[in-house]
Each structure stands twice: as structure tokens, then as C-alpha cells.
Design brief:
Belongs to the FKBP-type PPIase family. This is Peptidyl-prolyl cis-trans isomerase. One of its GO terms (molecular function) is ATP binding. Helix content is 8%, strand content 33%. The chain is mainly beta and 123 residues long. The longest helix is centred in the middle third of the chain and has 6 residues.
Length: 123
């Protein structure tokens, strides 16, 4: 399993943002499987669907991050379980499963978000 990956690039999406969570495996892993109760070690890139602008990337900080899935946005809670270590998955997350509708006080409220997530480990 080659974990010496580089930061992914996300092509600008075409058409309107989907209303439902979209889960797309780019690379299927062959390691341990993430569960809803897992703590995950991930590298990720996040961009806004409409603008294609990056808003966050663990790659830019030079290290992965570890989180209990239960503390992350619903799109991750629904989109990561079943993913296996070594995998790379793209999630397109509508506002209802991200930071809520516009006006909720978060800079990303009301926005559909695209994440590319590399699963490095699960606990």
C-alpha cells in the first residue's frame, strides 16, 4: 500500500450542486475498515463546490489529523464508514450535512463542499 501520496487536485465540478451526499471511491483501500464509532487519521482537501476555491487542506500543514468521526460534519459521519485504510474517497457534501444553511454563522454555511479524504488509519 503506497501511502506516499501527494495532495489531490479536484477538477471544477459541472452543473448544479447535488442535493444529496455523493460518495465516490477514487482508490479503494485494503486495510482496516472505518466504522461510525472510529477515530480516523486522515489527510484531506476541501474546496467549495461553486467556486472551486480551497478552504482547507491538511496537506498544507504537513501532517494528517486524527478525529473521532462522531465530532465531524454529518457528511463525514455518513461518508467515511465502510472506507478502508489506504483508500482515497471524494465526498460532495450538501449544506445540510456540512455547516448548515446560509446564515448559520460559519463561513461555509449554505455551501456545498467537496472533500477528498485519504484514510491513513482507524482506531
Amino acid at each position: 500500500m503506497d501511502m506516499n501520496r501527494t495532495k489531490p487536485e479536484i477538477d471544477a465540478p459541472e452543473g448544479p450542486a447535488p442535493a444529496e451526499l455523493v460518495i465516490e471511491d477514487i482508490i479503494v483501500g485494503d486495510g482496516a475498515e472505518a466504522q461510525a464509532s472510529s477515530t480516523v487519521d486522515v489527510h484531506y482537501l476541501g474546496v467549495e463546490y461553486d467556486s472551486g476555491e480551497q478552504f482547507d487542506a491538511s496537506w498544507d500543514r504537513g501532517s494528517s489529523i486524527e478525529f473521532p468521526l462522531s465530532r465531524l460534519v454529518k457528511g463525514w459521519q455518513e461518508g467515511i464508514p465502510g472506507m478502508k485504510v489506504g483508500g482515497r474517497r471524494k465526498l460532495i457534501v450538501p449544506p445540510a450535512l456540512a455547516y448548515g444553511p446560509a446564515g448559520m454563522g460559519h463561513p461555509l454555511s449554505g455551501k456545498t463542499l467537496i472533500f477528498v479524504i485519504d484514510l491513513l488509519g482507524v482506531k
